[in-house]
Design brief:
single chain; alpha+beta; Uridine Diphospho-n-acetylenolpyruvylglucosamine Reductase, domain 2; Uridine Diphospho-n-acetylenolpyruvylglucosamine Reductase, domain 3; Enolase-like, domain 1; 5-stranded antiparallel beta sheet; 10 helices; 14 strands; binds flavin-adenine dinucleotide; CO_DH_flav_C; flavoprotein
Length: 261
């Protein structure tokens, strides 16, 4: 580690002001950022903690929309998002207890790791990412590997999930990290089905639109018979080849539909 300033504001407005300084960076659960600092892959001059801001914490319902504060840890989502059971289950299977008690939904969505779980839930749910300055549709927010629509100094203050009629998340766990080797989130709404895939693509989380069309017509695993995802652009590493990951997408999507049904 090396020397840096540290601030812990109590309001979103104070956090935004603190982040206006050159090379200041938000810190949430630190589950990604602290190891990055230790390796000196990032060297911000100031860390602005977002974990003491009450207006960024908690889970609530607004009509049929589940709202989760950006600084809410995964363990709290697991315990309190009972209105959206598939999302609560996803949160309860992230990492290990230490990661779930420190890591936050805002940090996960901001980091947009290609193997993270929440991006698939947000994309499959057509969620709205709320920041200190605007609201961004999930379809516009996720822009590739570790890339999002966030501007410098912009913070995720809340994520809003329309609650679907049925949903399920299936994660093929990478056993060392607990991240998704491949994860598929399926959500069925009155106007159609959305399917989002994490862990698989070199471009990060994506929607499998062919599966969405088939499942919107017939919400059953058999609707996916004959459909497959190309291995082109899939991640290949020591844990799995591109072909393996492409195959897993079909398997996990069928399992998610079966479980949601
Ligand atoms: C061992 C291990 C296992 C894990 N397993 C999983 C898993 O199975 N599934 C999964 O999805 N994730 C997993 N994670 C990731 C973890 O759950 C966190 O979501 C992730 O580390 C980021 O959240 P954080 O709150 O710790 O963010 P931090 O590490 O504090 O920050 C991450 C990045 O986001 C920025 N940032 C943080 N908060 C905000 C905000 N509100 N607005 C804008 N920018 C912000 C920071 O500046 C930094 O660049 C795992 C992590 C570890 C260490």
């Amino acid at each position: 580690m090396y020397a840096f300033d540290f601030e812990q504001p109590k309001t979103i407005a104070e956090a935004v002001a603190a982040l206006a300084d050159d090379e200041a960076q938000p810190l949430s659960g630190g589950q990604t950022l602290i190891p990055t600092l230790k390796q000196r892959l990032a060297m911000p001059s100031k860390l602005v903690s977002l974990t003491a801001i009450p207006e960024m914490k908690g889970v609530c319902m607004n009509g049929n929309t589940l709202c989760i504060g950006g600084a809410t840890p995964h363990a709290v989502v697991a315990a309190e998002a009972s209105a959206y059971p598939a999302l609560a289950a996803l949160a309860s299977n992230i990492g290990d207890p230490a990661v779930r008690n420190r890591g936050t939904i805002g940090g996960s969505i901001a980091n947009n790791d290609p193997a993270a779980c929440y991006p698939s839930a947000a994309l499959a749910s057509g969620a709205t990412i709320v920041t200190n300055s605007r609201e961004i549709a999930a379809d516009d927010y996720f822009q590739g590997l570790f890339q999002t629509a966030l501007e410098e100094g912009e913070i995720v203050t809340e994520v809003r999930f329309p609650v679907p009629q049925a949903a399920n998340y299936q994660k093929f766990v990478q056993p060392a990290s607990r991240f998704a080797l491949v994860g598929v989130f399926v959500a069925k709404y009155a106007d159609g089905v959305r399917v989002a895939v994490t862990g698989a693509s070199n471009d990060g989380v994506f929607r499998w639109t062919e599966a969405e069309a088939a499942l919107s017509a017939n919400f059953s695993p058999s609707a996916l018979d004959g459909l497959s995802v190309s291995a082109d652009g899939m991640i290949g590493d020591l844990h799995g080849t591109p072909e393996y990951r492409a195959h897993l997408i079909g398997v996990m999507t069928k399992r998610a539909v079966a479980a949601a049904s």
